[in-house]
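Task card 7
Instruction: Convert sequence to structure tokens.
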Amino acid sequence: MKTYICLLGLLLGSAMPAYAASYNLYIAAGTHTINGAGGTTINVWGYTDNLSAGPMVPGPELASTENGSVTVTVHNNDTRPHNFVVLGVTTDTGSIVAGGSKIYTFTTPNAGVYLYADTLNSNVNREMGLYGALVVRAAGGAKVVWTGGPKYDFERVWITSDMDKPRWNDIASKGGTVNTSVYKPNYFMMNGMGGFDAMRDTNTTLVGSVGQYGLARIVNAGLFDESLHFHGNHMQVVMENGKRQVPSEWTDTINVKAGQTMLILYQIKFAKNVFPMHVHTAQMETSGGVYLNGVATLIIGQ
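Output:
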């Protein structure tokens, strides 16, 4: 559940934040299904904003504006300790005991996108599905990357991830000890989906008219680096790990390291054309070994 409050005016002579958001997140164990050839059902742990629902992979999107106030109450409904950290933003890495809750309140940094995750258990908890994105937009709802920054016409959030079902998920979900020195993921996802679904999902595909700019907020929640390749045109890297890239870099391939983020601007140049966006490592383009059901989506000119 989330609540937004617009705060205007002054209090005791000090300017109040322009935006505040309040969220409830619930940590739960359950399953996550990847559809299509090579797909499967995987045991996961995840965050959700619905007390009566199972875990979401990735977790719910959290949103604010620059210098906004965010309060997140995290309820641990699992039988294991967990935590909630916005990487590069919050500093409380302590655990939430099973059945317990903790309130996190913080002020958002620069506009951009940030990974939140459970950082406990040597990356096992994050790999199991406990991750999501905090989106920080420019003040006032302007469609600019940051206040006074480049403009865009539409945006997408892309969360890439990977899971090692037999050696990590199957063992951890049954209470076993994962050998973290061996990690051989066999499922790779875009927004929690295999590529067959991500290429049809309207909240994932970059779709626009000729001349429009699409902003992709990219979060690599996985444990492997992702080399993402854009067909059809070069794009601009405008932010990396919360730091503005001025001047921006033009390229057709970016390396988003594990646990890190990037913002890119892509201009639609061709009408009635469809181009792929996919990871440049063949293994990561698969789901259970089946190509192209891994990290992939489409760029569509209308």
